[in-house]
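ASSEMBLY PREDICTION REQUEST
Request ID: AP-0331
Submitted by: J.K., bench scientist
Number of chains: two
Total residues: 1002
Priority: normal
Notes: Please return the full assembly, not individual chains.
Input sequences:
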Amino acid sequence: MTHALYQLIELSFRGESALPVIATAPFTVRLRHADGDEVTVAGFWDGGRDYRARFLPEKPGSWSWAVENARTPLDVLGGSVDVGEARGRGPVRVAHTFHFAHADGTPFRPVGGTAYNWLHQDEPLFGDTISSFVEARFNKLRFMVFPQAGGSVEHAPELMPFEKTDGRWDVTRPVPAFFQRLDGAVRALGEAGIEADVLILNAYDRGVFGLNELSEEEDAIYARYLVARLAAFPNVWWSLCNEYDQLLRPEERWDRLGQLIADIDPSQHPRSIHNWMHIFDNNRPWVTHASIQNGFATEKPGRARIYRDAYYKPIVLDEIKYEGNAAARWGQLSGEELVDRFWNVTIDGCYASHGESYETESGSLQIVEGGRLRGSSPARIGFLRGILDDLVVPGLDPIDKWDDPELGVGWGRRQYLIYFGRTAPASWRVRIPITHYEGEAPVEDDRFVVDIIDTWNMTITRAGEFEIDEVHRDFAFAGADPVALPEGEAIAVRVTRADLV
Amino acid sequence: MTHALYQLIELSFRGESALPVIATAPFTVRLRHADGDEVTVAGFWDGGRDYRARFLPEKPGSWSWAVENARTPLDVLGGSVDVGEARGRGPVRVAHTFHFAHADGTPFRPVGGTAYNWLHQDEPLFGDTISSFVEARFNKLRFMVFPQAGGSVEHAPELMPFEKTDGRWDVTRPVPAFFQRLDGAVRALGEAGIEADVLILNAYDRGVFGLNELSEEEDAIYARYLVARLAAFPNVWWSLCNEYDQLLRPEERWDRLGQLIADIDPSQHPRSIHNWMHIFDNNRPWVTHASIQNGFATEKPGRARIYRDAYYKPIVLDEIKYEGNAAARWGQLSGEELVDRFWNVTIDGCYASHGESYETESGSLQIVEGGRLRGSSPARIGFLRGILDDLVVPGLDPIDKWDDPELGVGWGRRQYLIYFGRTAPASWRVRIPITHYEGEAPVEDDRFVVDIIDTWNMTITRAGEFEIDEVHRDFAFAGADPVALPEGEAIAVRVTRADLV
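STATUS: Completed
Returned structure:
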């Protein structure tokens, strides 16, 4: 059998039952490619006498493998797998400092959503969440492994991650059915083209389940088990915690957990930690991208970009307040406001996540349990995703980061995106800045195609093709006649060199 | 003789001449207070057979001292000094995370200016710089140890910091007269109440003097010598470099230099490194405060505060573009614009430095050579300094950092400062937010004094004393009648609990 490149390969074993799950894996598997590349993955216990090891191949060809360091006798100790053509694009990693790309080089622009307690919902809610994300074109889902307690949670799960020993959660006795469900959730997202932004810990247990009481050693055992199970799924992202600073743990403890995951994940998935009021030091080496809660930073353009030059990593504004009618001020944005925030973030060279806080039939919120989306923003955010997917540049960087945000984002002489915000002018003269962050300066005779984007009405109208006929000081101009902009409060312009369209 | 607390004590010695200056100090002096406190300072060579050791006492009483680790025979090997009452307030250090205070606890609010090449000017320019700073009420001066070459520099100094050996600067042979002049400059600033923000290296040599060619080992020898000479001046701040990233050195090298200074400075003066286009990782442990060049961050309120939660250190915007008529866009701000930027920074809980770029009689700029100030902003910035000095709180922190910047800065129930920017309303209803970052919520019957500040016309008008008569949701209100605000585009309001005025 030939496996697909960028798809999980699972090796199954029979061993001893009841081997406790500890920091040391029950066995490891060393895989060796015909050309000498080696990868080592940790095996894991999956219930009864079942053991597995999972591998995410990033190179086609033949991989031989051998069991090493076994703490349990296994029925198979070696073999080989053949990897053929790619299915999917491979795991996402940082590209061009501020952006992401799949392993095959395809840019990935996160346009994600949020359903914290999704994993713990029954059908049809569980499946509806995925289908509503597909419909909205969201490509990342932030959800928690451990169940949420308290605020707006109407559903306590039956499946819990660990057995109890003497009344205390025992991380050495994981519940296979719980983690198999998690496997299935990640797999289902992957099949729907959605990255699984896995929140390993959360701050919302509030003592109800007691899963917030794990010690640092217990966290590490759990994290090793989680990485052994999930790291071979191509669509996994690791987020250490949602609102980490609600948990009273020293920052050093989070730092060690993040470094542990960096050390043991063979696939080097994206790693982040999400704040409440105190942003983590995203300059720590294990942090691959900043996952920041700060709606304020997205309310006006020019704020979120400040983070880029504090961290020199991709900036993902995960929680920028929600569209909805909640009583709390984090959940009262109109659809227009949330869409405007997404565009502000885009024009600052950053990314954002959606969340919705209209009360649902069950009395909960979509950000908590998932399900169908009610708001007016998802369609427009999906429209934005389409624009990002169609970019002919690796990422959008501010053209003139610390001087003129009106020059928009893009790459010099290739493509530019300008957003006029909620007060668009009636017309725009085609002028392209000489300055640039990436790329090069436009020159006379360059031809550019100009598209007018109505971000709310979701239209893209070709204004025409223009030739640069004047380069004067800071700008290259095309023609004297400005392009008319439509009525509407949220208009953008996309300028693409004609040969790249 | 009794020395003053917080003033430099100098011990003088005679030893061998021509002992090369290397990484190991020629001797150290261990000082021991009667109650057991110990401080060790490095001695240094000061020309011929003269050696010195300097000590900045932070505790009154008797300190005995003894020479240790001498590489040269010295004429005196021990003694004692008596320290009496304080003169001055002692060195500045970080206080309350985002702010500064002198060693005696007095808050220090940097309102500084810039004259990069000041040290290398003759009189009257040299003295005029200090007197113009005193007149403007600037309390910090950013200047470079090594001379500037190139842009707007009309004066090449005769004194250089080192002798040459085989045509190359020899850091083991410092020029005492050069460093004595530096001592005098720092002392003169101190006597004028101005902190000396010493730029240890700079990016403007451009090969003219060749001082940009020192190796990492040579940097370290120079830095050790500089610290031995200057660390006992109470008003010293260390800045590793202006626009460090113009020099093509790996970030790790800067990091090691910063850590070296942190390790060897007995007085632990403020430490920073100033960027051109790439902000240094201000989360590095040796960085005490962020010294950031980014005028854009100060152009609108709500931007600079983003840095606070990236670094959790004081944020000093050192270079926010200059008031002047220079051709380059960094030097074309009007006085009104620069004053507005200072207020934006203040209202974001940060600090800024002034700079002026009107062409001077010599064809240079004030930011380069110093001298008298021509612009309209210094008087207004000095006025702002007066307001900061009069604060009854340790520092100004955004009241509602990620939600409502219009709530201003301050400490809950003590003092608030609100800046209406360049579009002030005609009146303001006295309302005090319940939320707070520091301090506590106001309650009914609290009395507050309201002052109207015209930031441009430099007036403070008492609007009256108001009693809180209604607490409703997010605000405490005093009376139904709003306070009238004067005409003018840059109005602020200061609200102080009556018993603290």
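REVIEWER COMMENTS: The two ends of chain A are 41 Å apart (CA to CA).
SIGN-OFF: pending second reviewer
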